[in-house]
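Section 4.2 – Deliverable D4.2 (structural model, holo form)

The reporting period included a commitment to supply a predicted holo structure for the target in complex with adenosine-5'-diphosphate. Inputs used:
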Amino acid sequence: MKTAIYPGTFDPITNGHIDILKKAVRIFDKVILAVAEDTGKKTIFTVDEREELCRKAMEGIEKIEVTRFNGLVVDFAKKVGAITMIRGLRAISDFEYELSQALMNEKLYSDIDTIFFVPDNKYLYLSSTMVRQVVSLGGNIKDLIPECVEEALLKKRSKE
Ligand code: ADP
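Output (structure tokens):
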């Protein structure tokens, strides 16, 4: 049974993340989407909300399990028996950060490998930060985020 984990903040999950996950399940028997409880980043959604949105967005996609984790991602990987970590690579800007993370994780746990997937062209410049900004300013980006995420962002916006 080949299990991989896809860790991230997912604040919120976008179609770019989903594209990476769909590519990963073609190779692995199971992919665990792991929502980081605390990444040191200030998030607009709580961990409960981020996890719930991931769960809704993953409905109907087989072989994916949604959960959350705290602490070192390698410890979580060991706990669930995964030796592969999935990450997405967008424009060159992701490369340095992702490379340093992958090397550090390998130093902490030598059995773990990171596999990078490149998203479809239309998601190459998509980020959760951009999604939050555009929706908060009233922009319509329906085709870049799941419906549940759009609804959740609009709800947040109306409460501001
Ligand atoms: P983190 O805080 O761990 O970077 P994110 O939720 O921002 O969490 O991203 C998780 C992973 O998904 C990262 O590897 C990131 O590069 C990747 N990712 C984010 N958006 C996209 C996208 N549009 N296309 C492909 N990969 C993406």
